[in-house]
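Retro notes (design track)

What went well: tokenization of the new backbones is finally stable.
What didn't: we kept losing track of which sequence belonged to which structure.
Fix going forward: every design gets posted as structure first, then sequence, in one message. First example under the new rule, 81 residues:
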């Protein structure tokens, strides 16, 4: 990040010299504009998808826990005896 004599950071964007403050302001303005284009889910969709994610997480945890228990007992069986 080059700087000028006054110590203000300067960026070069498409051949134009702009200060850091203008660049930050432009960044947030463009970000806000892009967020307006987002197709946000409805409350019902968000609740449904969240329920699916939580359910899948619990299901995978039970699956992995079951196999962990089996392998732990198998190792104990072979190592102890």
């Amino acid at each position: 990040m080059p700087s000028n004599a006054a110590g203000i950071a300067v960026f070069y964007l498409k051949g134009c010299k702009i200060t850091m403050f203008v660049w930050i302001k432009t960044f947030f303005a463009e970000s806000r504009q892009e967020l307006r284009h987002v197709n946000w889910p409805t409350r019902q969709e968000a609740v449904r998808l969240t329920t699916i994610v939580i359910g899948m997480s619990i299901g995978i945890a039970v699956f992995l826990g079951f196999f962990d228990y089996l392998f732990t007992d198998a190792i104990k069986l072979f190592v102890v005896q």
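Added context from the reviewer: The chain has a mean pLDDT of 83.
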